[in-house]
Amino acid sequence: MKSYLFNFKNLIKKYKNLQNFDIFKIFFAIFLFIFIIFLILNENNIQYFLNGFNSLSNFQCYVLDVGQASSTVLVFPDKSVFVVDTGSVDSAKDMISQMDYIFSKNKIKDVDCLILTHSDADHVGGTTQFLEKYQVNQILRPKILSESEFEVEIDENYLVSTTVTYSNAITSIYKEPNCQVEFIEDTYFDKFGIEIFAPVKDFDKDTNYYSPFIKIEYAGKRLLLTGDATDEREKEFMQANAEEKYDFLLVAHHGSKYSSSIEFLEFVSPTYALISAGDNTHPSQEVVSRLKNLQVKGIFCTKTDGLIGISVFSQGNLKICSLRNQFDFPLLVTVVGCGIFVILGTVSRDKRKISQLS
Asked: How many CB atoms sit inside 10 A of residue 34's CB?
């Protein structure tokens, strides 16, 4: 009888230890697991928040992190959206992920205008995926023909690109419902303060030549997008425009040394330079040196800074954010969780020793 009572007391003691410590640790482990999953699923949004992207408002410009490619999103105070280029096929998933955040943050459903600067795969590669995800109301395309069955105009004075990527992009844009598709011409969108300077010639063998210059002005600040504009296009731009200072320049051709001549950089005199690049040779050190010699206040590159976000407020104040500072939250939580487990285990062990001694 005594042995049964003794065993029953031990069972009660073990139950109390289990109740006080093991159950808590089990619940803590479940909570930790759920929290880590939450962080993994929402890590991008947390990164955006901690790097200040949630504070961007009024006029916003985003240079997306799409590797050795290019895609830019312009968000206006009334939540109208212009997208310039769609990156490459390989970067389409990353492009869509970043756009999802930008559009969700601004409660945007439709895209007002998509501009494809020229036919190169690193500028049009994500077009199909982009149009499958978002409704676009207007598309401006380059005067470069494709081999798509949907090509609407055949003109021997136009260059023809035979790449499958460009053909797929053209097919997608003409399949887009309720969308107006036009060739790029000199255009001024008075409502948005956007001015487009199209190529002078209708034909050139270099696809990069077709890149338009896109000037945006808001609250007295100027931004210039250049696509993969060649030095010839830079000369055309300088001849057609008065010399004026730009607050932001999206550097042409991923910072290639064959663009961004010193004459052009002096002409636009940028305060900040933005570069979309992702391989080992871009941006070229020559272009970086040219920018530094002009005493550009800041040079931002997606290769090192990740997604770049700019905000121009109605008073003309500026804010620039980037994802340069990345926080490894799952690792941090895991390390802290392991530390708590060690502490709980030590406390539990010490209590058992004290209980045995008593």
From this structure: 10
What is the pTM (predicted TM-score) of this model? 0.84
pLDDT in tens, 296-333: 999 999 999 999 999 999 999 999 999 987 766 555 56
Distance CA(116)–CA(83), nearest Å, equals 9
Residue positions counted in the chain: 358
Cα–Cα distance for residue pair 54/347, rounded to 1 Å: 42
DSSP annotation of 161: -
Residues 6+ apart with CB under 8 A from 315: 219
CA–CA distance, 338 with 18 (Å, rounded to integer): 19
Q: How far apart are CA 338 and CA 22, in angstroms?
A: 15
pLDDT in tens, 8-48: 566 555 555 555 555 566 666 666 666 666 555 567 788 89
N-to-C CA span, the chain: 23
The strands making up 59-63's β-sheet, listed across from edge to edge, are 180-183, 138-141, 113-115, 81-84, 72-75, 59-63, 308-312, 318-322
